[in-house]
Amino acid sequence: MGELVLNVNGARVSVDAPPGEPLLYVLRNRLHLTGTHYGCGEGQCGACTVLLNGRATRSCLVPISAAAGKPIVTIEGLEQNGKLSAVQQAFLDEGAFQCGYCTSGMIVSAASLLRSRPKPSDDEIVAAMDGNLCRCGTYPRILAAIKRAARLQAEGASR
Ligand code: FES
Ligand code: FES
To answer: In 48-120, where does DSSP find H-type helix?
Structure first.
C-alpha cells in the first residue's frame, strides 16, 4: 500500500492503495464512482472507459501508479454545473441504450472523439467506437446520438 494523489473530475484525492491496483477498481471501490463499469477486465469491451489526459482510456488496464497526477474524467465528471454534456444529452435524446451497461463507456469514448474530431464522418465514428461493445446491439442509435452530439456542440460553440 502507499498513498497516491489522483486528479479525478477536477478534484485532488488521496488514495491508499497498491500502486498496481487498476484505476477501475479504485474509481469504483474506493472512490464510489460507480458510473464506470466493469465489463471484461481485459481491455476488450470499453465499459470501463474514462478520459485520462483527455484521451479515452480503458481504466481496467491502467495501474493507478500510471494515472497519478494526470487528469482523470469519469462519466460523473462530464456534466458541468448540473448540466449534461452534449454527448450525455444526445444519448438521452436518441434513447441510445437498452440495458445501459455499455453506456457510460460509450459516452466517454464519444466525448473523446468529439474533442479531437468535432465533425466526424460516420466512418470515423464507427472506427473510433470500434472498441466499445454493446451487447444489446443499440449501435444505430449510438451512431445517431454521436451525430446529434456533434450538432449540439457546434450549436453551442456558435452561440
Ligand atoms: S472492463 Fe475494461 S475494457 Fe472491458
Ligand atoms: S445498452 Fe445494453 S450493453 Fe449496450
So the answer is: 64-67, 86-94, 103-116
Buried b (16+ CB within 10 A) or exposed e, 30-42: ebebebbbbbeee
Cα(130)–Cα(121) distance, integer angstroms? 14
Q: Which atom of ligand 1 is nearest to the CA of 131?
A: 3
Q: Which residue has the cell 445501459?
A: 100
Name the pTM for this structure.
Answer: 0.96
40 lines ligand 2 (CB under 6 A): no
Q: What is the pLDDT of residues 20-73, one digit of tens each?
A: 999 999 999 999 999 999 999 999 999 999 999 999 999 999 999 999 999 999
